[in-house]
Amino acid sequence: MNKQVRQSKIREMLHLHEVGNQHDLIRLLEEAGIRVAQATLSRDCSELGIIRSKGLNGYRLALPEENPGNIIKGLVEVEVLSIQSNEAVVIIKTLPGRAHGVGSFLDQLKNSQILGTIAGDDTVLVIPVSVAQISQVISYIQENLSKN
Amino acid sequence: MNKQVRQSKIREMLHLHEVGNQHDLIRLLEEAGIRVAQATLSRDCSELGIIRSKGLNGYRLALPEENPGNIIKGLVEVEVLSIQSNEAVVIIKTLPGRAHGVGSFLDQLKNSQILGTIAGDDTVLVIPVSVAQISQVISYIQENLSKN
DNA sequence: GTAATATATTCACTTTATTGAATATATATT
DNA sequence: AATATATATTCAATAAAGTGAATATATTAC
Q: What are the residue boundaries of the Arginine repressor DNA-binding domain, all occurrences included (chains A, B) (predicted)?
């Protein structure tokens, strides 16, 4: 269970040094007192979204730039208080003043089963393309606006 | 691995219903298709910081009173990208779709030097009561919407 | 193209997390 | 206080995550 520590160290390493491949990273980590197999490192890179791209000094392992979408997803998960529905629409309750942001995030996902959203102050109304799709829309909203 | 789902549902339940004790919560969860033992629920409550407090209708399980204002302040600090101004107005740039939330937060602070705000998608315009107060308004915004 | 190098995956094993039944402790009611 | 009710903990079993060695696949170099 050094995983957290190790991955944190990997991030740090890639910020500080130019690392060309996983084997070099293994060596650097070993110098820092962390011994790890290449298989594990491969999985770490995958989980951290690290990719190997070619720069001026040859190849290097690079962390992904945090794109706004992922930041906002984190915000939305905090803002959403409950997700309810009847046969025709879904109602999302949010922290006060946060409905617009949640609705905007949902809009930007461009789910074809959602006809549109209307946001008030702390409530977002979601209209499905057809009432027949309501349960799928609920699932979709739960998956994308909640922590799980 | 239903733990995430279950704890999320518990949060929702406590927002929607008044729940007096863990046994009632067990029943509610069962109605929602989630069967769980009391021991597990006890651990969930502990992890979620849920406490049993006495209100008007007797006891109820309550999520820790996170003052919404403080939560939102944290969100706003992440959402605000820049604060700029000319002699007459202040422009706050935000993450895409987050301007309304930021403007709403600013409104709710009810600063008497601010005449009003208008929010677009990623921009909030702030109008001071008088252009003479612009520098104080800038300071106020910086203090309340930024981390430092 | 082939060889060399780099990364991903499979397999087997170990460690950790999750869970419910039973039980103990704590809290409320009278 | 005694009793009822609610919650926490222990124990044992199960499920899930993490790991390295070996191997397969993919990528780069020539």
A: 1-66
Those residues of chain B whose CB sits closer than 8 Å to some CB in chain A are 4-5, 8, 12, 15-16, 68, 71-72, 75, 78-79, 95-98, 100-101, 104-105, 107-108, 119, 121
| Dihedral-angle region of residue B110 (phi above 0 means left; psi in -120 to 50 means alpha; beta otherwise) | left
Topology of domain B68-145, per CATH?
Answer: Gyrase A; domain 2 (3.30.1360)
ipTM of the complex: 0.65
Domain with CATH 1.10.10.10 in chain A: 3-62
Task: For chain B, list residues with pLDDT below 50.
Answer: none
* Residues of chain A with C-beta less than 8 angstroms from the C-beta of B34: none
Asked whether the beta carbons of B91 and B85 are under 8 A apart, the reply is yes
Can you give the distance from the CA of residue A39 to the C1' of nucleotide C12 in angstroms? 14
Check residues A65 and B136 and name the one with the higher pLDDT: B136
pLDDT (mean) for A78-103: 91
